[in-house]
Records
---
Amino acid sequence: MTIAIVNGPNLNLLGTREPEIYGNQTFEAYFEELKTMFPQVQLQYYQSNVEGELINFLHNCMGKVNGIVLNAGAYTHTSIALADAIAAIIIPTIEVHISNVMAREDFRKTSYIAAKCVGSISGLGMMGYKLAVEYFLSQKSKVKN
Ligand code: DQA
């Protein structure tokens, strides 16, 4: 099983970015932990600050990836193009947010991508990515290899 973890804008700064909201860990360090937790899964990681690059990456996942764990960052709240890409590629996608977006500013309460995703995880810190991978594993028999 191959799962792509995709992070959007500003998530390259995890570790130093607003640590009171997002914690102190870099995503690179967390990704190493994830790979140890799931040796049976082919985990890929992609990050971009550019909307079109994220869309191109999602398109390139077609036929190669069984599931996508997507933290679209602020594009969650703005990008119809990203929502359309998720719908177009037909690969099951889980929306993840490190912070609890429902407990923050009102503009974060709108997600353009949520309806195109299998489900959403918000507010559980980095653990949200792990839980998303676990969900895909639990569905393994239903997922094309
Ligand atoms: C975020 C929440 C978004 O509102 C914000 O723009 C981010 C990070 C999160 O992981 O909590 O960049 O997606």
Note: Strands lie at 2-7, 42-47, 67-71, 93-97, 119-122.
---
Amino acid sequence: MTTRTTFLGLGAMGSALAAAALDAGRPSVVWNRTPGRARALGERGATVAETADKAITDDGVIVVCLFDHQSVRAVLDPFAADLAGRTVINLTTTTPNQARGLATWAAEHGITYLDGAIMAVPEMIGHPDAAVFYSGPEAAFEENRELFDLWGRSDYFGADPGMASLRDMAMLVGMYTMFAGFLHGAAMVGAAGVSAAEFARRQTPFLAAMTGQLAGLAATVDAEDYGGAGQQSLEFTEAALASLVTASLDQGVNVEVLRPVLDVVRRQIAAGYGGQGTARIFEELRKSR
Ligand code: NDP
């Protein structure tokens, strides 16, 4: 029995994962749809498989890191029968329900399926500030822990295969809305001739300081105590956001990113909660519309 790890997908992320395994001395088989991308890993000692079916002939775990859910199905479906009894660790970004669907598909074919979500860019793989979230069978997580810890911190979120993805996606919402907010602000000052670089130098420490507010918001939400002392009221926030919209429009800046935040605040005020804390928009957001 070998302990080789198979890597399917050698894009920026798949290559980084395989490289970390090779650097740790783990025998690895690598495959990529476009063959040229495997060459560098081959020079570092990986066994390069010309086809996906040749890559999975060994008995080690199979790490999948492809573009999206559809590409995972395109690569794995033809070999479902051959994968029976094997462990597939899918680190491709999928939605929670796509991960659950893959787990169901795997179970139907006798495959052990662990889903993963990578909280890092490729350059961070192997560094302590990288994290990878996992969910699915705990035994599969524990058995492969040594491999996982080569990539960064390994966090396990339970048997529901969708939970790693859900955690990942919930965190990415914060990232993308922050990026959009930053770009909105850069457009505002940019209209007055200020460079985005100068703006970023001031915005970065401010946003970092503001993350200190998150724990307080979380405590309010968890306690469902939006009337507690010291909270910024919805009415106060409405006035602030209305000014931001006006100032943006005065600069000729599109308010498509900002406006929905004001709308959510206004809906809570219209529902009679204007004097309560702004964290109450959590109640508005968790309603299905
Ligand atoms: P790349 O675009 O660099 O690589 C995509 C990979 O998917 C390539 O190996 C590509 O093969 C392969 N691929 C795409 N479609 C198919 C298909 N139909 N059949 C077979 N292979 C296919 O992406 P990354 O490596 O950066 O990302 C991989 C996954 O990791 C994604 O799900 C991404 O969301 C996730 N991730 C990436 C992060 C990052 O910062 N890069 C951060 C966190 C997660 P080919 O070379 O032939 O095109």
Note: The chain has a mean pLDDT of 96.
---
Amino acid sequence: MANHHLIINTDTPEGTINKNIYGHFSEHLGRCIYEGFWVGEDSEIPNTNGIRNDVTKALKNINIPVLRWPGGCFADEYHWKDGIGPRENRKKMVNTHWGGVVENNHFGTHEFMMLCEMLNTEPYICGNVGSGTVQEMQEWVEYMTFNGESPMTNLRKENGREEPWHLKYFGVGNENWGCGGNMRPEYYSDLYRRYQTYVRNYGDNKIYKIAGGANIDDYHWTEVLMRESGEFMNGLSLHYYTIPGHFWKGKGSATDPRESEWFITMKKAAHIDELITKHSAIMDQYDPEKKVALIVDEWGTWFDVETGTNPGFLYQQNTIRDALVAGLHFHIFHAHHERVQMANIAQTVNVLQAMILTEGENLILTPTYHVFEMYKVHHDARHLPVSISSEDYLFEDDSLPQLSVSASKNEAGEVNISFCNIDPNKEASLNISLRGLKEGISEAYGRVLTASGTNAHNTFENPDNVKPETLKNIKINEEELTVKLPSKSVSIITLR
Ligand code: AHR
């Protein structure tokens, strides 16, 4: 058992953890939108206006603050006017990026906005720069947000929506260095300046404009965008996926039990810290006041698809390893709270690192879902500085810190401390000194998500194999806590 010591200063919070880092991303990809959210009004699966009740119920429980849609790569091929009006008249198209399947456009702007209203979440819409026109983008924003006399307002009303929607977050293209048009940063930067000009604020609706950002460590992209267009944006995105293998030559199985796969996954997940640090350093040069946010609007694990499923559908299982990846990302986002103002995991249902998997009328919650649920307490809480002396998790001739910890304080004065013990073999014994408490600790309550094997996951036959349990044996001694964290676990302790 490894011993660790932690000091938390509870009276000197530094900044706020924006709840939007707990955001989501849902694309017209595989079974995310269709089957995952949308089953249609005539489905036997219980639904409200076509949207599955079980999925919305589960998602309401994790308080999704913001939801990005319709893509992804799909966004730069999406023509929003195909997805409005009577459903039976909507144009069908081929979803070239994702399996070449027919997209019937039954889930469009009205359905997405309805979903956001049901979930009480902020919509984040990604517009089409790659194959769409400036006019198309301008009219979409007008259609959604304008209340005056105009062709788009009239069209919206004809389609049954009298009042405009509130829309804050709008992305001007997606991955324009790749599926969004294979552009050079200089070219995209100019296009960004042009397109965003026509993304108007109508009435009281103020749009927060997000420019398509870099892939992984493409620092040149960030440099050019910030230098040439920084003054025209509120946020700049970054995409980074945790892939244990190789993107083209085999990413690795989602349920591989080998420790080598576990270790490399943890290492690659932790790498986002370096990426954020380096992209932020470039942003600091052009924007020392941190007016432009870094928006990590695609992140998560990306494994090989499950055997027998459509390779274009990106359907993968989700294990305790994914839970650790999620916990590590959140701690890193918390630490970068000054620059990182939003993050969107890819993707909410049935695709990549999903919260929910469905099979017909059945649904399971994944270990990743449980991390989002446990970490709700960090939403919009004040970030507390933490100092940790952690032993290392050693694997072959490499190592990583065994523990990752993050703490916050909410409005009621409760302190929440979350922990990732990434060692798949060793428990961690932890001594925590809490500085600056007015009174001692009166109550400490903990929950833990762990499992017996590194590939433990939930199935439709055994949906509760991995789920949070009470964390036992938390010992309080005035301003000190001692606790034991099981191997491969994500835990949270609330102090009152
Ligand atoms: O999330 C899957 C895909 O990954 C998205 O469509 C794209 O933006 C990224 O390459």
Note: The chain has a mean pLDDT of 96.
